[in-house]
């Protein structure tokens, strides 16, 4: 697997986890911490069914964190309605919060997005789909991979 920069798919980058700190646990520890469904998505790169996730249509203000480790990943002001069935963001909170891996599974060429701190699967990023966003990127993220910390006044 190759790490990629989403603005220039296919280019190699340095490991972003060095900026946020690496969280390492055994698979037994992850299984004890996460529900079976959370484990399937976050640790085995599963996907929740479209339009079933808790944050698909959420418009609440706040910060989205990795459900596995709590790392801040996205802000609500980076979220947009793509009508794809999963929460969509046009950028991560910072590039050092996520890492990118080429994903050729399911007869598709995609870029997987993982938490840089704990290496949990979040979803995929797509480029050039024509959404009216500042980056022309769509981070298609599983709700079960996130928790929302509501903004306080």
TrEMBL record:
The keyword Zinc applies. This is peptide-methionine (R)-S-oxide reductase. Keywords: Metal-binding, Oxidoreductase, Zinc. GO terms for cellular component: cytoplasm. InterPro entries: Met_Sox_Rdtase_MsrB (IPR028427), Met_Sox_Rdtase_MsrB_dom (IPR002579), Mss4-like_sf (IPR011057). Signal peptide: none annotated. The keyword Oxidoreductase applies. One of its GO terms (molecular function) is metal ion binding. Gene3D superfamilies: Peptide methionine sulfoxide reductase (2.170.150.20). It is an enzyme of class 1 (oxidoreductase).
